[in-house]
Amino acid sequence: MSEHASHDLPFWRKYIFSTDHKVIGIQYLITGLLFLLFGFILMLILRWQLAYPGQPLPFIGHLFPESQMIGGIMLPEFYYQLGAMHGTIMVFLGVVPVAVGGFGNFVMPLQIGAPDMAFPKLNMMSYWLYFIGAVIMIASFFVPGGAAQSGWTSYPPLSNIASVGQTFWLVGMAFMINSSLLGSINFITTIIQLRAPGLTFNRLPFFVWAQFVTSFLLLLAFPPLMAASVMQLMDRVAHTSFFMPTGLVVNGALSSVSGGGSPLLWQHLFWFLAHPEVYVLILPAMGIVGEIIACNTRKPLYGYKALVYSVIYIGVLSFVVWAHHMFLTGMGTTMSAFFQVTTMIISIPSVVILTTFVLSLWGGSIRFSVPMLFALAFLPMFGVGGLTGLPLGLATADIHLHDTYYVIGHFHYVVAPGTLFALFAGVYYWFPKATGRMMSDKLGRIHFFLSFIFMNGIFLPMFIMGLAGVSRRLYDPTQFAHNLSTQPLNVVMSISAWLLGLSQIPFIINFFGSIFRGKKVDNNPWKATTLEWTAPSPPPHGNFATEPHVHRGPYEYSVPGAKQDFIPQSAPEGAR
Amino acid sequence: MSGDSGIRYISHPHPVTGVTNSKLGIWCFLASEVMLFGGLFSAYILLRMGAASWPEGSAILNVPLATLNTMILITSSVTMVMSWASLALKDFKKYRWFMAVTILLGLAFLVVKGFEYAHKFEHHHTPSTNTFYAIYFTLTGLHGLHVLGGILVNTYFLFPGSALWKKDPDQFMGRIEAAGLYWHFVDLVWIFLFPVLYLL
Ligand code: HEM
Ligand SMILES: [Cu+2]
């Protein structure tokens, strides 16, 4: 089918401006992983100030310019830049590009037996828009006044009057939004149109379902943020007052804007995106975990249909819960009541998914491979993150908890030991498909156990601090008497964070070392059933030598009477 | 059936879904555009509801010019359909003619809009004057950019892009249909913008 000369293409067409979904997937994955590392390092710097407020940063403190640190002591402006850019980079430049751009691009077309994405050129453009957006974000650190410092949420009026870094933030976001728009169009079209013969929707691997719903969220939730970004850009550049109320006082003087705007408008538009966005962060992770659990328990996923319905249900409902982030804005009790109810309802499918995953383990013969360790750890970690969300969804409890470290603990449990663990699991699991080689098991286990301990060392104390009333986004927590009793926890958390940083070294060595020195394996080292494992490793341009035909569901493991404990989806009818 | 990439349903519809890839793609794109303008329209509603007073659009904007522009855009939608229909009749010459008219009408719309803007600026009515002008300039500006985008795409299909007609007429027709859907959408947005900003 695809004997066309990809090997004849010059280097820059084959590896840089490639239209091959696998190359683009790997580009996304590696760029995204680098941004995860960069965003993480920002936080490692910030955590010094939280653990030892006002003390000079040792060793590297003097390397920073006077606009950021004086004598190694972090300035408040720089602290807020680190915080805002950490959140932005982790969410928009790190996790989503890895989870959707990386795994979605690389794995999804293989799993549906397609030769490539439906629109390969759009796919390439999507990556490069992301790249340009990312460069703009990074460049903002070097402009006068530094990078954006109004949090990843960029609430006006503060963001409207912030220095020029915020404009860079908005322009960078515009590139990211258009990148994800092209990506989501491509994903939806590919999944609907290019499934191999026989691969009906109810035979689709759960990972593909998760990517499918995620794409709809990206397609429909991002544009309102685009609208909001355009308005904030107008406010900053053309001095409109979309988000500037009448009579606003800035630095003791009445602001000269025309007024009449509403800061709440931004919050509505922002959270209309950002709540679905949190499901964009979690659904692909659930997809990865589902694949790995089925393969490593050697039995079908429990309740496949329940899983699929839950994912769709989450997708739809995630558009009507956004204002649970705004209970304290004075939007009124009627609004609060509505959004409390929807929030409680959306927790149900999340619980269904978690429960079916746990039940899938029952009676399985579990292989504790490295991907499985990460997938198993995902379950309780996501559980903690999800359950701590419930009190936040009730307005009464949220009055106490809003904007405290409790919220930070909640969402980090879902995205850090949750989603990030799933992403690591995915890297270990599909690495042999991308390279034809295994990653080292020993290094993988070291990476896992250290990461597991230190992740909890960072995030568990956050709940205690939050319940004690410590606010988020504090430059110097010790300025408030009520924070002093929990201040030692900040030291624990910071040291855990730095050790977590060191724990990633085995992963980095493993990742790059195994590309060249990993153990060579055949096309299906995990003995898995889905289509990607029938393609060569690494798959050539066009993926499959002959178009696969699908004859069965995705998880036919341990079928009674079968010769092997797995039957590939493409094995002919009646094969045993 | 499949192009040299091995990707199917580029020029012929999928037997089950009944659409080509590009048609499904453009519908997805338009869905996201609905959300984009939907976001801005919601902003309009929220700002207007929260405002102490709101100017009467017809008193400060130029309704006759906007009516003219409405007619221009609707006509251009018709010529866009005609250019596609000419392809269906295998009449390439007529296609080019209708496409050229569509492009010119699009340009005419922008010129009229330019006059309106210039007039407002002369009287120092800028986006920063009040929230009415802010949303007026933002909505019409974004819409104008969409018109410009459509003109660029159509110009591409009038000149270099039309080489595909000889190679794969079905695929080319699919592209013109997609471009047409987009153009109608841009037209439709204006049909909402016009009463909301100028009349209500
Ligand atoms: C399972 C049910 C969940 C419920 C009921 C829930 C509820 C909430 C609520 C009510 C808040 C707002 C708290 C406040 O600001 O006072 C919140 C914040 C947050 N949640 Fe969740 N959540 C859930 C799952 C998730 C998931 C799966 C993710 C991400 C993968 C997530 C990510 C976030 C983030 C990022 C924030 C904080 C945003 C910010 O203020 O910066 N949540 N959650
Ligand atoms: Cu939320």
Q: Any descriptors?
A:
heterodimer, A: Cytochrome C Oxidase, Chain A, two-stranded antiparallel ribbon, 62% helix, globular, B: 200 residues, Four Helix Bundle (Hemerythrin (Met), subunit A), 7 helices, binds protoporphyrin IX containing FE, binds copper (II) ion
Question: What topology emerges from the helices and strands here?
Answer:
The complex is a heterodimer of chains A (576) and B (200).
Chain A: H1 11-16, H2 21-51, E1 69-70, E2 73-74, H3 76-111, H4 120-139, H5 158-161, H6 165-193, H7 206-237, E3 249-250, E4 253-254, H8 263-297, H9 304-317, H10 333-361, H11 370-393, H12 395-401, H13 405-435, H14 441-467, H15 487-503, H16 505-517
Antiparallel strand pairs in A: 1-2, 3-4
Helix pairs in contact in A: 2-3, 2-4, 2-15, 3-4, 3-6, 3-7, 3-8, 3-13, 4-6, 6-7, 7-8, 7-9, 8-10, 8-11, 8-13, 9-10, 10-11, 11-13, 11-14, 13-14, 14-15, 14-16
Chain B: H1 21-50, H2 57-60, H3 63-88, H4 92-122, H5 131-158, H6 164-167, H7 169-199
Bound molecules: protoporphyrin IX containing FE (HEM) and copper (II) ion.
Protoporphyrin IX containing FE (HEM) binds at residues 153, 278, 281-282, 324-325, 343, 347, 350, 386, 389-390, 392-393, 398, 401-402, 407, 410-411, 414-415, 419 of chain A.
Can you tell me about this structure?
- The complex is a heterodimer of chains A (576) and B (200).
- Chain A contains 16 helices and 4 strands.
- By secondary structure, chain A is mostly helical.
- Chain A has one domain: Up-down Bundle (Cytochrome C Oxidase, Chain A).
- In chain A, strands 1-2 form a two-stranded antiparallel sheet. Chain A has a two-stranded antiparallel ribbon with strand order 3-4.
- In chain A, strand 3 and strand 4 form a beta hairpin.
- In chain A, helix 3 crosses helix 13 and helix 9 runs antiparallel to helix 10.
- Chain A is globular, with a radius of gyration of 24 Å.
- The N terminus of chain A is likely disordered.
- Chain B is mainly α.
- Chain B has a single domain, classed as Cytochrome c oxidase, subunit III, four-helix bundle (Four Helix Bundle (Hemerythrin (Met), subunit A), Up-down Bundle), CATH 1.20.120.
- In chain B, 35% of the residues are buried.
- The mean pLDDT of chain B is 95.
- At the A-B interface, helix 6, helix 7 and helix 8 of A face helix 1 and helix 5 of B.
